[in-house]
From TrEMBL:
This is O-acyltransferase WSD1 C-terminal domain-containing protein. GO terms for cellular component: plasma membrane. One of its GO terms (biological process) is triglyceride biosynthetic process. One of its GO terms (molecular function) is O-acyltransferase activity. It comes from Escallonia rubra. It comes from the Eukaryota. Residues 43-188 form the O-acyltransferase WSD1 C-terminal domain. It holds the Pfam family WS_DGAT_C.
């Protein structure tokens, strides 16, 4: 944000973190999921969300330590994730869906999405290799389309490998500059972690 517009460096940035609230006892194969009783395995999406204020990178540190930023963000997410907010949000969404229907629930979620700068979501993918028409699938990721945020980050595991996908709003974020900033941030964190 600072690289593109110096007025934005003091702006508040909020991420909407989507969390799966469905109890998962562990990985299940497709056969185990299909043959399980309804009370053993829930199907469908059960989720809640957290609004997380993204902490500012403290440039007053001499020398600057990006790990402080990472630890601060981790502390905020852990505190909010372990609060009743996730459970209550999930119950609110379920109540709205039951009483007013899926369209009202979708409108509520969309209005919540409009009030955040970015979305972060993840999904546990299959541990077994999948195939489509007899062709093995080497990699898998997902992206949420049509959301009102300028930035969407999704993570998905597939065969014990993690894929991170990033989507940016066309015309709002320069993809090359964003990629350069992310690479620079990862490099800073890696160097700081190697020193400590």
């Amino acid at each position: 944000m600072e690289a593109t517009n110096h007025e934005l460096k003091n702006a508040n940035t909020t991420a909407l973190v989507l969390l799966n609230t469905r109890n998962i006892a562990g990985y299940k194969s497709l056969n185990e999921m299909v043959n399980s009783r309804a009370d053993e395995m829930q199907w469908g999406n059960k989720f809640g969300f957290l609004h997380v204020s993204i902490p500012e990178f403290d440039k007053a540190d001499e020398p600057p330590n990006p790990l402080n930023f990472v630890f601060k963000a981790r502390k905020i997410i852990r505190r909010k994730r372990n609060s009743a907010a996730v459970y209550l949000t999930g119950r609110l969404l379920e109540t709205v869906r039951t009483c007013r229907g899926p369209e009202a629930t979708a409108q509520y979620i969309h209005s919540t999405l409009k009030n955040s700068s970015m979305t972060i979501s993840n999904m546990i993918g299959p541990v077994e290799q999948m195939a489509l028409a007899g062709h093995p699938i080497r990699g898998l990721y997902f992206m949420v389309a049509g959301v009102p945020q300028s930035l969407t980050v999704t993570m998905m595991s597939y065969m014990k490998k993690l894929t991170v996908a990033v989507g940016t709003e066309k015309g709002h974020i320069d993809p090359q500059r964003f990629k350069s900033c992310v690479e620079n941030a990862f490099d800073m964190v890696l160097k700081a972690a190697a020193k400590s």
